[in-house]
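Researcher: Before we compare anything, I want clean individual predictions. No alignment, no superposition, just each chain on its own. First chain goes here; please echo the sequence and then give the structure tokens.
Model: Echoing the first chain and its structure:
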Amino acid sequence: MSVAEQTGPAEEYLEEHEPARVRIVLIAVATTLLFASLGQTIVTTAMPIMVADLGGLDHITWVITAYLLASTIGAPIAGKLGDLYGRKIVIQVGIGVFMVGAVIGGLAQNMGMLVAGRAVQGFGGGGLIVVSMAVVADVLPARERGKAQGLMGAMFGISTVIGPLIGGFLVQALSWHWIFFVNLPVGVLALIVLGVALDNPTKGIRHPIDYAGAVLLSVILASAVLVSNMGGTVYGWGSPQILALIALGLGAVAGFVIAERRAAEPILPPKLFTINTFLVVNGVGFMVGMAMFGTITFLPLFLQVVKGLSPATSGMFLTPMMAGLLGASMGAGLIMSRTGRYKLLPILSTALLTVSMLGMSTLAADTPLWLIATMMVGVGLGLGPVFSIGVAAIQNAVPVTMLGVGTASANMFRLIGGSIGTAAFGAIFSAGLARNLGGLLPDGAGLRSMSAETVAALDPEAQVQVMDGISNAMHPIFLIAATVGAIAFLLSFLLKELPLSNSLPGRPVTARG
């Protein structure tokens, strides 16, 4: 007897309209993910105006770093809480935390208050991103998750492009404070829609909380992000501050391993590290994060200083990459859903990423802009499938009780890779500038003195030498990014392709009418 024959008219109606309810859930969580990811990018165009208003130029990088650090810490914690208590309550709390951070940032009277608001925002935003992606696994069987995760991955690309544009518009039309206040009505609307769309299947069940694991994991992630962001810039690599952070991080790793083995509900279960898909996908994600953030960080500088483009125009050259990422992410997800196969996709995409990075390593003052845009499309096409396929593959491989923390791991390793990669590439670039441009610039060579105005003030012969020096300083960055892409390519061959189920996980569906 079929399911429909065993149920009454009400159940038949619900079953018939299940796709519509699932669509509402997916639209709601995709919007929430976009809402959270915009929090990272919307402030970039307003940072100079914030500094002019609040002062504290020496702390300006913390407007970005505080959000990155807090979101990296918040993601695995929220993912685990979602596994224990259900996604709905964790998303609602995450939106609330994000909005509190927005109020603090919008009302900021000094740079310290602004950084504090960004940290609170980041903690809520990191949780929102991973729990939203975990909801996909609750409402769709593994075979159908590729398309939805492709949509989720596309939200990141969209936020990277429209975030600075929205921020710039709000700054010009109103003030920088509205970059934060605009989150409030959107957050309230998201709370209402998600309150209707989601149910909380584990409501009322109490679980032990792994406080020790949460604290130690936070220390590990904070140490990694802080060392990679401050090492070689704020403090020297051999300074007591950096060495102390490294020692703290290593000590926390040892303590974390012990704590997780003893915890009844570990925040990052050791069992995950015995799963092939978890290890391979996160290894690839770490490498891809390094390549992606390195490209985003240094290409606009090349375009402004060497090619003479305005900041706005140079920023638009990231659009081809994001267009490629969006299309490849959704396309790979569609292929995964239709064929049930996915191993070949990250292999092909990381190969394309490697080739594109090799192409970027040849950038020079006479490189045509159309060729740069073409290579950026290739970078995006190389990144997209890793984002969508990676999350769906992890969700298919981990136990249903670990869906949230498994999903969080993909975001966590990618962000750590991006943070470490950006710091390492920055050090390599600065060393290359010092080697290539020593004595040519009036204030010496380095990132802080490098601008289009500085180069334009030089005589023509010196301008040519500086442009060549900048191009040559960037070549090792993209060569290393290509090497990282090649490692990701080789790692992808180790992925064990598992069958994709056509049924929902063994837990209640979280959508309701």
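Researcher: Okay. Second chain, same rules.
Model: Second chain and its structure:
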Amino acid sequence: MRFGVLGPLAVWGPDGRQVRVPEVKVRALLAGLLIEPGRVVPADRLIDALWLGSLPANPAGALQTRVSQLRRVLGKDAVVARPPGYLLQVPPSEVDAVRFQELLTRAGASTGRARVDLLADALALWRGPALIEFADDEFARAEIARLEELRLTALEEQAEARLEIGEHAMLADELGDLVARHPLRERLRAAQLKALYRAGRQGEALDGYRLLREHLDDELGLEPGPELAALHQAILRQDPSLAAPRRQTRRTNLPAALTDLIGRDAAVSEVAGLLDAARLVTLTGPGGVGKTSLALETARRLADSYPDGVWLVELASTPAESVAEVVAAALDVRDEGSALADHLSDALRGQRVLLVLDNCEQVAGAVGRLTAHLLRAAPGLRVLATSQEPLGIGGEQLWNVPPLPSADAVRLFTARAAASAPGVALDPEAVSAICARLDGLPLALELAATRVRALGVRELAARLDDRFRVLGSGRSDAPARQRTLRAMIDWSWELLGPEEQTVLRRLAVHADGCTLAAAEAVCGGDDVLGLLARLVDRSLVVVGEGPRYRLLESVAAYCQERLEEAGEREEIRDRHRAYYLALAERAAPQLLGPEQRQWTVLLDAESANFRAALDGGDERLANALAWYWVLRGRLGEGRRWLASAVERGGTSATTQTWLDAFMLRTGEAHGCPPPEDGPGDDMELARATAFLAFAMVGIGDPAAGEEVAERALTAFRRAGEPWGIAFVRSVRARQAQVRGDLDAARTYAEQSRSAFAELGDRWGQVQVSFPLGQHAEIDGDYERAARIHRESLRMAEELELWTEVADRLSLLGRIAQLTGQQEQADDLHRRAMALAAEHGYTVGEEFAALGLALGARRQGRLEEAEELLRTWLAWDRALDSDPAIALILAELGFVAELRGDAEGALALHEEGMATARRTGDPRAVALALEGMAGALALGGEAERARELLAEAEALRESTGAPLPPAERGDVDRIRAALARQ
């Protein structure tokens, strides 16, 4: 994200679109954090900024609420709590004020046109008065004043820099309005006086001095400073030192720019900086990434720094033996037929020249030899080369030109499409999709923009699967290799040897890159590493951390066609499937112990390759990945691939069992019947069976779930499998808790936790904390419950177990509710609900929603509570989840009672009673009895109500879990009503 304070407060997302930050105090919080980017802002300072003079009852809690609201906009990791306050965790360079100051610093170290351009770039960041909406707020005044002073100083420096390069004629008029707004700034006035004088307007310059003198006298009782007074005297005597500097005629053959270079300002500055330090800079990158455009713009910016010329040499169609001749022709050096390299050296010796060697890849060796010779002979020579591969000589500084980031790619495409098809609507979502599919390659984006007039952006986006036909023509004035997308890649392909072409086309079977081991397994051959290195050097393969090797999407599409032409498609896809099946099966047992974190990260990197390998409905691969999907919370994805395997003829009991369990967890199935046979000695099926028992908790017939768990346990015990035994014990803990056997629940949970800790399985420790924390909550020990849930939340976040994170947020929300922190409770439940929905974890989404409903009802928001409850009641009925149905009916009954509807309340609680009895949980029955007592008390049946309350209390005592004080609200209310009767 990018942040703006140089104007109204603004936030832009990765796609370049502005992100709305709602609510005034949340915007003020963001402004307070942005004023000190990269530093912790004390909480008390933020509180003063938001509520100066009118503090809320709980300032720290109110601030935390605003922080939570801001995290929902920026992302949960964007704002972090750090003593003594909060830190906005974004790179400072993403804040426009920081970028502004960085450009000013670089401008201070530059001269000539480069300085002017850097100051212009800095001032272009301003969108209006800094933080204008907070101009009257005390917390922002000092920063606003500082930034506005910097802006004025930059304007003064820009005026002086433009005077130095002879732009006085334009400045003489442009500075008028600025001086009128700031009549007492002597430095600004001095620049205006010089510009007027040099433009031949001496009288206006003298009038300007007089106006300044009058303003200073009237307002401050002062005279102009000595420097300005001296300038006035020099103008009066027409001092020759005031004459405009002579503008040198540039010696260059650089073409004039026809369009703006979008998204490369920082790159131009960085490359220019490299040329200060290195005498040879080579811009590398794939075809179409914009190497030539970047080189030309950099050369234009630096033209004033090379008094002896800036020369472009185009080498795209040059034979190796003719490189020196082409360079000589560009420099107008006579070709006398022999020792031409020496003649070039003699011509350049003693001169300060920048040579731009463009498109060197097909003659890289010859260019390298000539460049080395010239650099040794001519100390004042600098060379800026563009090539898909390095020149490979000493002193070469490589700079890889990256594709455009998404926001800049969108800007480029939008600008070119608007020029090509004015008036055509540009749907932002379709534009973003086009830019992503084309990898941010400027040439591809330019070609695509020419198609907008005929297709529109939505149709263009839809047709990019056939990109080579869609982007089959472009600008007629472009080189032939740049007129179509296919021609661009053909140019690179034809420079490769046969072995390089083989590896490149086979790499295309991978999705989102691959490791070296995968490349060697799939591509085959004796020297895959060496060939990969050559392809990386030629900018056809992108290498990332790991290392991982990746093709840009357009290159991959081209190579897939070549793979088809070679008749290798099926063979290479089979190799790909075999490699990733072996990887998944090797990883599966490692996900059940201390190395699960490392292996989940490894599998994360291969997600796209697994999806590609699963495309044929591979049943073994789906089963091997099932536990990984559980750990990562990708339940919807797992359900889809398992279902696909079954639909394509998968007959394994393991596959069906996993599918049944995933469908339960995503809320897309009723309680499942237990498998007809136990897993026997099949540990893969035993794990699937155990997870099915886990998914059946609270759903369907409790006895069926316990039978499934027992079958899994039998298999694990027979095989001596400690992980499986620990897992089933955790399942039994939950089953016991549902039926109200709290002692058994605690025993099973503690046994499971000890075993998982010994095994080093952190997932197991996280999920078994659920019954342990709930047991503490039932006991009324909220401090211990919160401690258990917070610790498991931390572990779940570290492991990126997002479904477990959602449940922990809900559990912490429940504790906050019980300890009277309603605002925090609602925030935690909403975060849990959003996270569960994001991962297709419908059970967790409902768990969070019911927490919100309980909070709304207890805070008197009856309509909101009822809406949430009824939304999930039908879903739970379809799922056959009696514990959830009993709770919802009890809550709906209390809502009816609080509205004064005794008859409706009683009917709901009686229905809830029938459901509660089916669960076998005495506490659920007690809750229904308490609800019925409330309805009867409202209807005037006091004696019967008292009997029911006594019966409920006895039931709770029998479980060893009487109602703790924080949960006695309904019972106390009913007893108070009975006392009044």
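Researcher: What stands out in the second chain?
Model: The chain is about 65% helix and 5% strand. Additionally, The longest strand covers residues 353-358.
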